[in-house]
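Deliverable D2.4 — example input (structure tokens):
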């Protein structure tokens, strides 16, 4: 994860508020182009402007982004009491925060299986700790 994040941080715009490292929307990154520099990256991972990154498996928030999210989500009188991931997508689509999504995700939720070592997305876990088990 560290080497991926070092590569991604080089192309991440300075005004980023949130970056999704794990999500459950398979259509993220399919309707747009990766950010400039993603194609120069030797990694299989590309960075896209977020569209609808449902699920909050893993994300990073900048200091400025944290302040914005506290303002948007912190006032319970304004809250619609929707799930957090839905609230975040609404804020992203209203362009109130600058959000980016890493594709494919580097952190995923595995499907339950008969073995605790079986996971359904093994093909995208390049350089995963799982290789060493």
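Example output (designed residues):
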């Amino acid at each position: 994860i560290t080497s991926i994040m070092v590569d991604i941080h080089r192309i991440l715009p300075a005004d980023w508020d949130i970056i999704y490292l794990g999500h459950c929307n398979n259509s993220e990154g399919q309707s747009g182009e990766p950010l400039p520099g993603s194609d120069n990256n030797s990694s299989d991972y590309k960075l896209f402007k977020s569209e609808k990154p449902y699920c909050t498996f893993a994300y990073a928030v900048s200091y400025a982004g944290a302040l914005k999210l506290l303002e948007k989500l912190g006032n319970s009188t304004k809250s619609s009491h929707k799930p957090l991931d839905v609230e975040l997508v609404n804020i992203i689509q209203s362009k109130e925060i600058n959000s980016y999504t890493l594709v494919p995700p580097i952190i995923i939720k595995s499907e339950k299986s008969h073995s605790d070592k079986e996971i359904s997305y093994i093909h995208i876990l390049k350089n995963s700790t799982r290789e060493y088990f």
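The radius of gyration is 16 Å.
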